[in-house]
Amino acid sequence: MEFKETVKSRHSVRHFSKKNVSTTDIEEIIKLAQLAPSWVNSQPWKVYAATGKALEQIKTDYETKDRNSEKSHPDFPVMHRDDWNNRTQANMKQWRHEIVHHFTDFDEAHHIMSDASNHLNYAPAILFLTMPKDSSLWSVFDMGSFGQTIMLAAKDKGLDTIPNYNSVRFPEVLRRYLDIPEDETIVVGISIGYAEAAKINTYRSKREPIENVLKIRK
Ligand SMILES: Cc1cc2nc3c(=O)[nH]c(=O)nc-3n(C[C@H](O)[C@H](O)[C@H](O)COP(=O)(O)O)c2cc1C
User: Fold this and answer.
1) Which residues form the Nitroreductase domain (predicted)?
2) Distance 164 CA to ligand 1 centre (A)
């Protein structure tokens, strides 16, 4: 796929089909992502790919915890949306507004988005990205570069993704089934697979006008 096309066609897929992702594809994607830059080539990343039975067990435990209304506790703290700065808060509000309008009404949007979340997007595979607990703050930048390269490499192969907070809400479950050591921070889950033909996947998020983002001084 042409580079610009790959970047433009990547978007978050929230309902995956049952079609599995091959081990070869996962290996090739991660190998490409390893070419991402990092502070003094420190390469803080590790990837735990949950597929098959391991992923089924994770999904079942998450469903139980959600049924018991257990409070989420991801390794990275989550800031309440009212505490974000005005500009990013406005962008998030706009996103929620667009999602509701993509569907018939709030109830349908809420039902479909919750169903997707509750089933971890029906993903056939989730790549859990970790970094050492004793990392520099700079390593978070490295993890972002690595994650985006994963998502673009996946798109280049015709695979879809979504980076996900939702799948890392209960780290102890992931540690149990994926043998993730305590001295690693679970940063994010990237669900990967093939998009289901579902309305939720036809939504495309918008971006701010470039003049709000780019300041060039001559
Ligand atoms: C760190 C991170 C966590 C995210 N967590 C979720 C999530 O839990 N649920 C969800 O539906 N989308 C999640 N997203 C996807 C964003 O909503 C999405 O990237 C954004 O709206 C832009 O849309 P696009 O990815 O389709 O371009 C997350 C994205 C990032 C980068």
Assistant:
1) 7-194
2) 6
In a domain, 149, yes or no: yes
Question: Would you say 176 and 125 are in contact if contact means Cβ atoms under 8 Å apart?
Answer: no
Sign of torsion over alpha carbons 22, 23, 24, 26: positive
Q: Does the residue 12 lie in any domain? A: yes
Atom of ligand 1 nearest to the CA of 147: 31
Is 162 among the domain residues? Answer: yes
What's 145's domain CATH number? 3.40.109.10
Around Cβ 216, how many Cβ atoms within 10 Å?
Answer: 4
What would the pLDDT profile of 159-213 be if each residue is shown by its tens digit? 999 999 999 999 999 999 999 999 999 999 999 999 999 999 999 999 999 999 9
User: How many angstroms is it from 205 CA to the middle of ligand 1?
Assistant: 10
Alpha-carbon span 172 to 81, nearest angstrom: 25
- pLDDT tens digit string along 59-77? 999 999 999 999 999 999 9
